[in-house]
Amino acid sequence: MDDVNTSRNFTTGWAVIIGFLSGVFVRSFFLLGSSVVGFTALLAVAGFLFSYIERTKKPLIILSVALIAFASGILRMNNAVLVGDPELTARLGTEITIEGTVSDEPDVRENGVRISLSADKLMSATSTAIHAGVLVVAPAHTNILYGDRVRATGTLRIPQDFDTGTGRQFNYPEYLAKDGIGYELAFASVERIVAENEGNILKRGAIWVKQKFLDGLGRSLSEPQAGLAGGITVGAKRGLGAELTDAFKTVGLVHIVVLSGYNITVVMDALWWALAGFPRAFGFAGSAFVAVFFALMTGGAASSVRAAAMALIAITGRMTGRVYLASRALGAVAFAMVLWNPFILAFDPGFQLSALATLGLIWFTPLFISRLSAIPEKFGLREIAATTLGTQIAVLPLLLYQNGQLPIFSLPANLLALVAVPAAMFFSAIAALGGIALGPLAPIVAFPAYVLLSYIIDVAKIFAGLPFSSLAIGAFSAWWMFIAYAVIVGVLIHIHKRNGWNGSSHS
């Protein structure tokens, strides 16, 4: 395809992506009805007509495309807004009994279990059909699984915003709305009422494998090593405890505890290497299976779906031998995910941080690698330093806006910890298999994993214990965050013009 035509197509594509995402984002905070959509569409039509008359007005065509996409984003968000069930709304503040199916893997915490329930029956003198997503807050050790048909009794209420402890308000209702949840059932008792599981068989199977894997880790490793192993391998949220989790956050290492694109890529690269002697289709099929399976094991979390989708695109580029333009791939993935669930753009911190971190890897890492010649390439130290700096710059304004914590020792902590993560993942998998198969002998097989995991934990503890390991930044307006990102983009544009860097990479 001709380079000029390709550039035009991508320019039009970016107009669609940016326009649509902007429409969804603006509608997330402001009530925009059909009149705004109609006026925006009218402007777009006028732009198209004028560009047809004045055939040299190509920027006007791009603007018109962006306006149409903006209006489409507003419409998509309008259609996604949750509508309450009148039967439930009439009973707010009262104790009720409902029935439904567990729609996601229960979130097990120290103080209770949070169950996402797709409720379809309100039980009283007679059962009444309802249709609503309800977050059921049950006591600790409630034994409920994804796909179970359950009956829950508790106090019905609307989720409320809460203070994060730093003067910042977290929009909890909209955060739950991304999962289709509009109500909360507090102080609930829950019982399983149907033996047959009603969940998706693929998701149910992936969660079962994940649980067996975690059980194996629990038999072969002690805490907190088992909790860290579960986090870096299958994205498990358990085990580290509040104190150690805070230490990882303080030094900017918490990203390795959750399943991320980095973790998935480590596994996919290892599989690609193992299948090097087979036809390329085997490597692609195996890597695609890994990406999808990991996303399923996390319950379809936005960050893991984004990471899996990006990884699949990268593997496709590797198989075909074509140039992989990562920023365009990320734009396409973000567009598709927001089209599917528009709430994640403005109200899912995981999606926001994941997308920004990926942008940092794409835009900044090549720039830093060329300027960090003093750091040796051995053990991937220079790449770790470049990726750490790139992702930290990209996510810093958002992190400061969200929690006000500035990690001072993020670079040295990541340099020392990340070099051990691939080996820790490999030996953690060995430890899990040993825990499943070897019984009392499992800790012997798990010893290498124990050493590596303990090392990563000690790195976090040591740096978190240093004076001024992080600085607390007071709450500030979102406008300052947008200004910070405008400055970052401005600097990137300047570097782009000076160096001619196009952000592309070869698979």
What labels would you give this structure?
disordered N terminus, 60% helix, two-stranded antiparallel ribbon, 21 helices, alpha+beta, 507 residues, OB fold (Dihydrolipoamide Acetyltransferase, E2P)
Low-confidence stretches: 1-7, 502-507
Name the structural class. alpha+beta
Full CATH superfamily name of one domain? Nucleic acid-binding proteins
**How far from one another are the termini?**
20 Å
| Topology-level CATH name of one domain | OB fold (Dihydrolipoamide Acetyltransferase, E2P)
Strand percentage: 5-15%
What is the typical, i.e. mean, pLDDT? 83
Number of helices: 21
Spatial strand arrangement across the major sheet: 1-3-4-8-5
Percentage of residues assigned to helices: 55-70%
Structural Rg? 24 Å
Describe the global form. Answer: globular
So what's the CATH class of one domain?
Mainly Beta
Indicate the multimeric state: single chain
CATH architecture of one domain: Beta Barrel
Q: Biggest β-sheet: count, sense, barrel? A: 5 strands, mixed, barrel
| Number of DSSP-assigned strands | 12
